[in-house]
What does this fold into?
Amino acid sequence: MTRRSRKALIIGAGIAGPATAMFLTRAGFEAELYEAWPYSTGIGGGLQIAPNGMHVLAELGLADDLIRRGSIAESFDFYSQGGKKLGSLNRNMQERFGQPAVNMCRATLCETLIDKAWSSNVSVFFEKRLVKIEDRGDQPVIAYFADGTTAEGDFVIGADGVHSVARRHVIPDGPTPFDTGLLGFGGFVPRAMLEKLSIGQRMETTFGQSGFFGYGLCSPDPNEGAMWWSTQPSRGMTAAAFRLQGQDAIRQHLRDFHAGWHDPIPAIIDAADNIVVTDTLDVATLPTWSRKRTLLIGDAAHATSPHAGQGVSLALEDALRLGMLMRDGQELGLTFQAFEHERRPRAEKIVALARRNGNSKREFSPAGAWLRDHVMKLMLPLASKGMDFMYAYNPRAA
Ligand SMILES: Cc1cc2nc3c(=O)[nH]c(=O)nc-3n(C[C@H](O)[C@H](O)[C@H](O)COP(=O)(O)OP(=O)(O)OC[C@H]3O[C@@H](n4cnc5c(N)ncnc54)[C@H](O)[C@@H]3O)c2cc1C
It folds into this structure.
C-alpha cells in the first residue's frame, strides 16, 4: 500500500479533529472526519485562544480571518469582589510571542475549521456517533457508528473530546474524567454593555469569596460581541441539573450567587440569555495514548479544565505535531509513541497548572479571600513569568 492511499478515520469535529484532518491531508494522507452531532453554527459560549494556538491557526492560514471575526485580548486584569484592582497578566502577547491572544465564539472557531477542512479535501460526515472500534490484524480498522453504519481506514485518530469513546477502545478499563467540583456558566451580551465602560480590549476578571466572574469583547457582532463567564463551586449540583431548571432559574441563581459583586457584573447577568452550563472535568493522566492503530489527541488524551485557557491551543498543537511526525513516514506504532513521548509532559503540566488555578475559585472564608487577594497582588508578576512557557511554545520548532 502506498503512503498516499493511507486513510485516517478521525473521530470528532471539534477543534483537534478538523485541524488534524488538514495536517494529515497536507502530509499526504486521506482524511475522513466523523462527528456525532448534526452540522451546527451556534454551539457553545466564548473562549480565548492563546498565542501558541494562534501560531497553529496561522499555519492553517486562518489566523487573520479569526482575528477579524474575534477580538484581540490585550490583557487579563484581576479584581476583588468589591472592585479593587489586584493586578494584570498577559500584556503585549503579540510582541512577546509573535501572535496575540484572541477571544471568540467557540461556534466561529469550529465553523471556520470545518469549512477549511471541507475545502482542503477532507471528507466530513455529521451525525456519525462512534460506538466501537475494531482493529484485527492486517484487516482495515473499522469504526462502528450509532446509526448502524461503519467506516474502514488504516488508522483512527480519537479526537472525540473529554468523554471520548475512542479512549474506551484504547484503555478499556481506564480512568474516567475527573470532576474538579466547579461549574462553568457562560454566554454573550451586547458589545455596547462593555464598550460604554471603556475597558477597550482588556479582559476583566473578578475573584469572589466564592467563585469567579470574567468578561471581555469577543466579536464585532453588536448583539453578541461580548462574552462572560462565571466559575463557581458546584455544591453538589451538576450542569445537567441546572439545564433542566431552564434559563430563568439559571439567571436567578447567578443573580443570587454574584449579589453584591462590583459593576457591571449584575447588569451582565440580567442581560444574559442562552446561558451555557458545563461541568468542569479534566483528564490528568492516562496509562497510554494509543493502542495498535488508534491514537488519542486533544481532550480525549489530556482534557484540561479551562483555568489556564489552553485546551484549544493544546488540541491545535497536537494536530500540527502529529501531522509533522506522520510526514516523516515512520512505522505507525513508532510515530504514535513518538507523539505521546513528545506531547505528554507538556500537556500534563498544563492540565495540572489549570487544576491549581481552579483552586483559587473555590469557597473561601472572608479572611481566606482577603489573604488570597493580597497574596495574588504580590505574586502576579511571578505567576506571569511561570506561564510564559505555555505561550512561547512554537510547534513548528518543537
Ligand atoms: C466552559 C469551558 C470553557 C473553556 N474555555 C477555554 C478557553 O477559553 N480557551 C481554551 O483554550 N480552552 C478552553 N476550554 C477547553 C477547550 O474547549 C477544549 O480543551 C477543546 O475544545 C478540546 O478540543 P477537542 O477537539 O479535543 O475536543 P472538543 O472540542 O470537545 O471536540 C470533540 C468533538 O468530538 C465529538 N464527539 C464526541 N463523542 C463523539 C463520538 N462518539 N463520535 C463522534 N464524535 C464525537 C463532539 O461532539 C465534539 O465535536 C474550555 C472548556 C470548557 C468546558
The chain has 14 helices and 19 strands.
